[in-house]
Write the structure tokens for this entry.
Amino acid sequence: MRDHDTWFGQPKGLTILFLTEMWEKFSFFGMRALQIYYMTKELHFTQAFSSVVFGAYAAGVYLTPIAGGLIADRWLGRRKAVIIGGALMALGHFMMAFEALFFPAMVVIAVGNGLFLPNLPSQVPLLYPKGDPRAGAAFNVYYVGINLGAFLAPLICGTLGEVYGWHYGFGAAGVGMCLGLAVYTLGGKHLPADASRTASPPQAAPAPSGDGRGNIRMLIGVALAVMLFRVAYEQTGNTFAVWADTAIDRQAFGLTIPVTWFQSLNPMFVFLISPLLVRVWTRRAAAGRAVPALARMSMGAIGVGVAYAMLAALIVASGSGAHAIGWLWVVAFFGIFTLAELYILPVGLGLFASLAPPRFAATTIAAWFFCSFTGNLLSGLVGAVWERVTPQGFFLLLAAICISSGVALRGIDRLHRASAALPARPIDKTA
């Protein structure tokens, strides 16, 4: 690819997708930063009910992509699906500015997200020719865009919501989604064309090879392990946020840090750490010493478990009084949490994208997001027990969940390697 066809050494389309995803995540996490506080403080829901609603919404935005991926692959195409989905999401965020529309707004956002979410990242692999060495790090670059938007959202939407009124924060989230749509439509010429969809009857699909069947089994196992991981991972916007509101000493330099700002630490560390990790992984791959994707994912799940265990230890060491833990400890927690996260979530997304059949790329990506649906739904139910146990006991439970997920991923890796080493069994055509 010629230099003038690239920006920052990558295809121009990656920058367009990066910026579109950045603004979409600005809108999504802008609303998310306010959601639990809005329900408990403004709408006066109980913590348990708010946790269930939070988990159900977080699950819903990852369930609708299953249908959205199929609709795009069969009828709309990626471009139209992204534009229609983004417009619905913007509408939903503006609806959040009205208390009576709180629940309908979440439904509209979830439906729009179903069209948007699987069809944007499924375009990333199509930007690169086969064998392009840049493709291996493409999803880590894309993941920085996700987290840049997530970093800005609590600082802007969170501050507007806490200081000037919740509805200003929700409105700002809607503006962010509109900016993302503008970037996507204006930069469309740099994006891959949609695969053609003809009216001819579908031909019978060839029988999957032994390797293909092994990949399917492996992806199913990975999906189950990631579902378990997300039960704990999603608590940072739910029970962790509730705990942080009263447990953290938020005084710094004579000012009180808005509690929503702590939601920016995770994405901030993502775009600080990601370039270093990409460089290390690229060098190891060039030297033939790349760590397999599943092994990295296992390390990531266990690392997040270590971060939660550290949080429990801090609570025990400092006591359970109000504002007993210094805010710098929370920064350290998110540093460890985020480093570990980078070993599992973008790596898993890249794994599913790389194994996606060309005509069902969006559907395969949607299957990855189905892991998030189930995990997020369970996270809301698990979060509902927050008030029944001690904070340190709850965070130790989350640590155990993450470590169990990491052990499962390691086992899947070993089984997949063992099966791949066996000679393929011929298909009995006489059966």
